[in-house]
Structures are given as C-alpha cells and as structure tokens.
Amino acid sequence: MKRWLSVVIANISLMMVAALPLPLAAQSNEPGTLQGSVVDPKGQAVSGAVVTVQSESKDEIHKGATNSEGRFVVTGLADGSYTVVISSSGFAPATRNHVRVGADATPALSIPLAVASVAEEVTVTAEDVTSEAAQLSPVKAMLDAGSARTEITNSYIREFTSPVTDFTDIMQAAPGTFSVSPNGVGLGQSNTFYRGFADGDYTITYDGIPFEDTNSPTHHSWAFFPGPTIGGVDFDRSPGTASDIGPTNFGGSIHLLSPQLPIEKGYILDYSYGSFNTQLIDGQYNSGLIGSGKKANLWFEGNHMSSDGYETFNYQRRTSGALKFNYKFSDKTVLSLFSSVVILDSNTPNASPTRAQIAEFGDNYLLDGTQYLANGNLDPNYYRYFFYHVPTDFEYAGLTSDLGHGWKLDTKAYTYSYYNHQHYNGSGTKISATSATDKLNSYNRLGDTLTVSQASKYGVFRAGLWYEWSYTNRYQTPANPTDWIDQTVPNFHENFWTNSVQPFAEYQYVAIPKLTITLGIKDAYYNMSLKQYADNGKIVGNLGGAPYVTNDAGYNSWLPSFEANYRVRPNWSVYGQFGQGSIIPPSSVFDVTNAEVKGLPNPTKASTYQGGTVLKLNRLSLDADGYYIRFQNAYSSFTPTSGPDEGISYEYLSPDSRTKGFEAEGNLYLAHGLSVFLNGTVTTAKYVAAPAQAATSTTPAIAATPSAWVASTPHDTESEGLTYQDRHWDLGFFNKRIGSQWNDNGSVHQAVPIDSFSVSNLFLNYTLHNGSRFDESKIKLSFNNLFDNHNVTAITPANAATSTTPFAENGADTLTLLPGRSVMVTFQMGLGPKGR
Fold it and tell me: Strands (DSSP E) along 649-697, which ranges?
C-alpha cells in the first residue's frame, strides 16, 4: 500500500511539472472550419469555455476551448451538419443544433451564456480540455471543482453496470465507496459507505431535490430510481457550498441526474435474462423535438423486473415507470416535468442468516420453501411468513427563466411518497400469536427548491431556499404469521410532522482570471411535531391511560462554507475547501417511557477540511485529494431510576471521531480506445479517546473510552479497470478491493474484525452503428463477482461484548456475505432516424 501511495504521489508531482496548456487553433476561413465567440450575460468574453463539436451521425467529435478573448476556432471538419455545445463553470450549457459546415459554409457563431442553476452546474461535463483519457474515463473530475468530486458518466452506467443496477452499485465506481447486496446486484436494499460515513450521514438528490426517509435521513435503493432512470451521477464528497441543500451534507452529496432528452425520435426495447432466474423487460420512448416550433421533448421509460434472488426464497418483483417532459417557452424560459412510480414486492426478512444456518445449508441460505419442519411443527423461516409491499412515487415541476441583466430563476416544486407495509416473523425458533410483526412505515412530502442568481464580470451571486413539509405514519403491531391477525395494542404507533427550511446565500467571486473563491452561509432549521400513541410497553408504555402524548422539537444550525479553485494551467487546477454540515436528532429521541425527554439535544455537526488537484493531459487524466473531518457523533440517552427525575430521559453526547485520508483516481489512455483506470484510498477513522466520567444527575457512569476504529471504514480501497471502447465494442473489466475493517459489538467499538475482500466484474457489449434505423441496437453480456467470492462482509454478534471480553465466533451470529457470481445477457433493439 505504501508503495502504491508513493507511486501515485510521484506521478502527480511529475505531471504537474509537465502540464502545458493546449494550443488554440488560429483564426481561419478555410473550408471545414467553425469559429465563434462566447460571452456572458453582460457581454463580457468568457475564456476557457469548453467547445464540443459533434457530427449529427455521432461518429466525429472535436473539442477545444475559448481563448482569453472568448474566441474559438475548430478546423478539420468534414462536410456535414454538427451540434455545438459550450460549457463553462457557473453558466448553463448552451447548444446550437444543425450547424452546417462545408465548402459553402464556414459559420461564425456568437453564443451568449446564461448563469447556471445549481442543478445545471452538476451536469456540466468535466472534459474541460482536449483529453482523450478524460473522454474515455468511466468517471471524470471537474477542473473547476472546489472539492473532491467525481462524475460517473452515462456511458459507464449503460455499458459497465448490470442491467438491474441501482444507485448503490453505480456509486462503487468512485474512490473509497463500497456497498454489498447479499441477494445480488440490484436485488434488494443496499447502502453505500465511504470516508467513515454510513447511509444517513450524506445527502442524496435527484435532479437537485433531496430525498430521504423521514425517521432518519437514510435512503431506499430498491424503492426509488431504478437504473434506467439514472442518466448520470455527480458525487461531491464534501459539505459543498451553501447552495448545496439537504439534511446531511456534512458527509457529502450524491446527485442523481435524470436522463438527458435527445433531439431525435427513438425507441429502445431491452430484454435481459440471467442468474437466479432474473428477468428485466425495459422499454423507452424518446419523442425528439415535437410540437409547433419544435419546442417540446418527451421521454418515457417502463420496466418490469423479477428474480428468485441469490439467497433462497428471497424473491423480488418490481414494476416501474418514469416520464420526463421539457417545454421551451422561449430561449429564456423552460418548463420541466418529471414523474416516477415504483411498485416493489419481495420476501426479504428483517434479519440476515446465522453462522450456523450458513454452515448447514450453504452460503446462499436465507429462508425455507416448506411450511412444516420434519417434526411436524410450523417452520418459523417459511418464506411466506415474510413479505414487503412498497409503492413509491416522485414528481416535480421545474421552471428556469433568464430574467435579464444577468439574473436567473430556477425553481422546482415537488412531492414524493413512500408506503412500506411489511409482514415478518420475528422469531427464528417459533410460531405464535405474537411472534410476527405487522409493520408500516409511510410518509408523504411536499417541497420546493428556489434559487435566484446573478452573473456579472466579477462572479456569480446565488441566494435561495429549500422548504419541505412531511407527514409520517409508523407502527409495529404483534401478529400471528399464519393468519396475520393483529394484537389490539401495538409495539409502538406514532405520527409526526416535520417542516424543513434552509435559506442560503453565496458569492462565487472571480478574484483574478485564474482564481475563483466562493463564500456562503446557510441556515438549517427543522421543526418536528410528534404524536405517540399508548403501546404495550415496548416504547412509551400505556401513558397512564391517555390515548397519546405529543411533543414539539425545533432545531437550528448556521453552516458556513468556503472553497477556492486556482487554474494553474488550462488543464491543471488546485482547490481547497472548508465546510460544515449538521444532522438533527431522529424521532427516536422520544422513544422513552411516557415520551418524557429533558434537555433536548442539539443537532450534531461535522467540519470538513480538504484540498486537491485535477490534471488532464491528452493521454492521462488524474485527480487526487486529502481530507480531515471532525465529526460530532450522535447522542446517547440516560434515564435515572431514582430521584426527582426518575423515568425522565436525558441526552448526552457520544465521543467525537476524527477521519483523515487520501484519495486518487485516474485514467491512462493507451491506444485505439484502450484505457487503464485506477483509483485508491487510504483512510484513518477513529473515535477520540475520553477519560472515565463519574455519574451525574443527567449521565450514567461512563467508562474510559479508548481510541477505536469507526465501524464499516476500510483502512484502504483499490480499484483497477481495463476498458476498450470503439465504434461498436465496449469491453470493461473492473476489480475493487475493500481493505480490512471493523464492526461494532453493541457499544464496544473495534470489536469484530472483517477481512478484506474483492469483487471483479466483466462487461462485453456490441452496439450496431451502421447508419440504419436500427442504430443503438446491441447485445450486452455482464458478469458480476466474476471469480465467485463468498467473503463475509459484515457480522452482527449474538453475544454483546464488554470492554474486557473479546469477540468470539458464535453459531447465532448473523452474517452478510457477498452474493455468488451472476451472469446476464441483454438484447436491445434500438429504432431511430436513419443515419443518426
């Protein structure tokens, strides 16, 4: 590992010294030439803007950049029609279609740029210079980034992931990330870990709209946004700037982006079949430009997936559809509409298999297929005693408008809902009238994101607001799994209402032409009103005969941000950042007897310091960063058993943690479409040692806390990839190694060792490009976990440890394992205009 790190650092130093700006073609009026100028809303020249010229047949791409006067020239173009795209930091991309170039046409374009919304800025590609390595890289970095940021491309998602992929699987392309779905890729709920952060410690957005569970800011990878609805990912491993909205930005922001709408009409129909009897049927329709004046675009996608799953009797069924519509009222105002619906059914239980079950029945054991045991008793692990039904929907209406004088408006009104009704037998040893649970977790959310911005020759000012209202209904009631008759009194039942408000303001100041500084401030305010009903003693108890009790909690945090980017050369930048984020306590703060809480906890905060560099040479693209994070961990509760506050809950802080590390990723272009992709991380994530504390009226006696490793944080990760991409073939081999880590055992940290493991994936695709109407038809073959590794990736011990008792294996430990090898083949028929 040390050798790998030293090699990376040496290469960075060498390439920084060697980096030279790419030349701009001289002014020319020769045939096959396209020239023009780019200006901002004030009419000032925009230097360094990326110019991409692509033939409408998509087999010819030329790239360049504007000079200090905002001018560009692209030569060597064959006769034909081209699409020209201009992109620059802080501005929305500008497109000119059907630009004719030839002996009788040497066009000179004048292209004004409008200031970008936050959502638009994350879609700007990272190919800021003519770099073959960057163009062919599965993931890209942004030369104008102010933080550690990875863009996962649409081509990577379509060519180098499983047909049933989800966003946790896609994220594994980024440095330091890992996730495991024990039932197979895309065949169950899965979570992503990175930099010591677990799911719930970072924000995920879709087209700039945050989405998460209401009880805690976790996410549902199997119930929202299947692979076909994801057109790209912008992964910011930092708190971002003030305009980055969301409930837990201190861990970073994963921005999922909807597919871009093409200007040409087309149809795609996929059928995929593979291991575990997995089938996927997917159809997509692109209207192209339609309507009077060709001002509208429509995209529709629908799919049905079914699978027996890798684990025994862990069936999965999912039907989903999505629609996106754009309407251009004018060159200044555009309306966007989006809707997605997912209906999920599965037999997934709440618990993983035990060590003893895996030893007896095999690595893929989870549930049984017969209702009765050999002795005639009912089998508590019969698969029909476990089932989910989860419908979800997500909709938004967005409007962007250029208001003139450099001002721009961007707003999205949205709503989404989640209705998870689950039934499961909670005992692995018996069936009784109360052994099962009837569980509901449902919520509805309404909100709006609003940004106004103004671009001038000095920079870009942004101000805005994120507002959201949500309603949640949750319960768990004991039931009989043979007839699902519920008991009268629940384990718990609660409703709560949450109002979230985040106003922000920031200024992106161009201090000198090569230096950009962004300063901002954000106020994160939340109010939660909670109603908890009397229960059987599991949570709040009988409330002295009252039907319910109410509580109201308000939380507020001011969060500053700073970042700077310096363009050393046109193809080399360095950056630095400081940012803060917070997370509010979950509703479970009030899950105590009579829901009595004294001393409401404050939001916990994290502060991140990081710096890095991005370099793009013709045959090599590289980015690297180092980071240091101070994380204020969650509260613990204490309930005195005597004295005047007997039975009233107090909250106190757990020890802080400190995380620091180094990340790097790069792509080396060899020749003829062949590239080598590498990334790696080295991380240290430990809790801060704390001395023993005597008991007080609000805290118990606390033993000394040694410095211990944060759970699910690998010491290192490494990825190696080999890709070959040409007109027809896309071949990719990717291996990811996750270094050794620890799981906790109850309250004891660094207790359960988890050995390193690796997963290798292989993809072979052939796409038809012959100028016919069947362009984009393809055959795709994918292998996940090619070498069929079955490593243990997580352990929940059966016996809680103490600070003096080491972990010892037990047959009742529950284990999470890598799913076995899966193979899928996809047949895709594409139908579109001839010669596209």
Answer: 649-653, 657-671, 674-687
What one-letter code names the amino acid at 36? G
The DSSP string of 534-597 is --SSSSSTTGGG-SEEEEEEEEEEEEEEEEEEEEEETTEEEEEEEEEEEEPPPGGGG-SGGG-E
pLDDT at 43: 64
**Selection from 249, 178, 147 nearest residue 624 by Cα:** 147
Q: Which of these, 294, 302, 263, lies nearest to 833 by C-alpha position?
A: 263
pLDDT tens-digit series, residues 326-360: 999 988 899 999 999 999 999 999 889 999 999 99
Evaluate whether 442 touches 493 at the Cβ level (below 8 Å): no
- What strand order describes the sheet that includes 635-638? 597-598, 649-653, 635-638
Which tokens hold the place of 361? 């029945």
Instruction: Name the least confident of 116-130, 370-384, 405-419, 797-811.
Output: 116-130
Distance of CA 812 to CAs 301, 314, 428, 635, Å? 44, 20, 10, 29
Report d(CA 562, CA 334) in Å as an integer.
Answer: 31
In DSSP terms, 675 is beta-bridged to 669, 723
| 481 Cβ neighbours under 8 A, 6+ residues apart | 385, 423, 425, 431, 435, 436
CA–centroid distance for 342 within its chain: 18
Q: How far is CA 252 from CA 123, 150, 215, 301, 449, in A?
A: 17, 11, 20, 29, 19
Which architecture does CATH list for 266-831? Beta Barrel (2.40)
Name residues whose C-beta falls within 8 Å of residue 597's C-beta, 6 or more positions apart in sequence: 551, 589, 590, 648, 649, 650, 651
355: left (phi over 0), alpha (psi -120 to 50) or beta: alpha
Q: 690 by DSSP, 3-state: which?
A: strand
Report the C-alpha gap between 223 and 305 in whole angstroms. Answer: 12
Alpha-carbon span 91 to 121, nearest angstrom:
7
Residue type, 492: F
Helix (H) or strand (E) holding 74: strand 71-74
Topology agreement, domain 1-113 and domain 266-831: no
The span from the CA of 118 to the CA of 129, in Å, is: 22
DSSP states of 380-430 as a string?
TTBGGGEEEEEEEEEEEEEEEEEEETTEEEEEEEEEEEEEEEEEEE--SS-
707 pairs with which residues across the strands? none
Distance in angstroms between the alpha carbons of the first and the last residue of the chain: 47
Distance, CA of 681 to CA of 626 (rounded, Å): 10
Count CB-CB contacts under 10 A for residue 155. Answer: 16
Closest CA relative to residue 281, chosen from 291, 290, 270: 270
Among 41, 80, 30, 37, smallest CA distance to 59 is for: 80
Beta strands in 143-242 (DSSP E): 149-152, 203-206, 209-210, 232-236
Task: Give the Cα separation of 771 and 545 in Å (integer).
Answer: 76
Domain positions in the chain are 1-113, 266-831
Tokens 């799953």, located at residue: 309
Nearest to 625 by CA among 614, 636, 611, 640: 611
HEC per residue, 82-139:
EEEEEECCCECCEEEEEEEEECCECCEEEEECCECCHHHHCCCCCCCCCCHHHHHCCE
Q: Give pLDDT tens digits for 369-406.
A: 999 999 999 999 999 999 999 999 999 999 999 898 88
Indicate the DSSP class of residue 658: E
pLDDT in tens, 5-64: 443 333 333 333 333 333 333 344 456 888 888 887 656 678 778 888 888 766 678 888
Architecture of domain 1-113: Sandwich (2.60)
pLDDT digits (tens, 9 = 90+) for 64-88: 888 877 888 888 888 888 888 887 7
Long-range contacts of the stretch 56-63 (C-beta < 8 A, 24+): 56/80, 56/81, 56/82, 56/83, 56/98, 56/836, 57/771, 57/835, 57/836, 58/836, 59/727, 59/769, 61/135, 63/127, 63/129, 63/130, 63/135
